[in-house]
């Protein structure tokens, strides 16, 4: 099995970013969405990114942000990758000349493959759990059998993942990467070092099996 990458999302503190990096996570996620309990300010994001060691990707998560708002953040926060987690159209996502991933919330009865293919210029598509009115961070898993195979866009699996279930998720879906937030927390926006290390360890164990 090929190597599966891991992203620890909802980072709000420098110490949690460093724990994720030390554990071997490939990326950390910073939430620029005021309604989220894991939201960060520009100043927090700047400090966290400045503390990251080399080769850890910083991902900025946005939910239906306006173009002006997003550009203002990009001018002062050196994000490596954008993550659009709302209802953003492909043309909007493509319009920043930056690598991005698009999050899609999955529910039965939809043509998941067609929705994914609409974002063909994305670096990857993140599949999360559909809960009405909640853009993400639900802590709930969806039916992994709904994920199509042989897609042209790399898949990042999210939604209710923990160190206990991520190995099964990887074996069933075979994603490019996995994304976790609530599953490694001691509280909203506060990561648990032991859970972070156990999660990354479980991902790596699945990769080598």
UniProtKB/TrEMBL annotation:
Its EC number is 5.3.1.24. It is an enzyme of class 5 (isomerase). GO terms for biological process: L-tryptophan biosynthetic process. Keywords: Amino-acid biosynthesis, Aromatic amino acid biosynthesis, Isomerase, Tryptophan biosynthesis. InterPro entries: Aldolase_TIM, PRAI_dom, RibuloseP-bd_barrel, TrpF_fam. It catalyses: N-(5-phospho-beta-D-ribosyl)anthranilate = 1-(2-carboxyphenylamino)-1-deoxy-D-ribulose 5-phosphate. Pathway: Amino-acid biosynthesis; L-tryptophan biosynthesis; L-tryptophan from chorismate: step 3/5. GO terms for molecular function: phosphoribosylanthranilate isomerase activity. The keyword Repeat does not apply. Gene3D superfamilies: Aldolase class I. Residues 7-201 form the N-(5'phosphoribosyl) anthranilate isomerase (PRAI) domain. It comes from the Bacteria. HAMAP family: PRAI (MF_00135). Belongs to the TrpF family. NCBIfam families: PRK01222.1-4, PRK01222.1-6. This is N-(5'-phosphoribosyl)anthranilate isomerase.
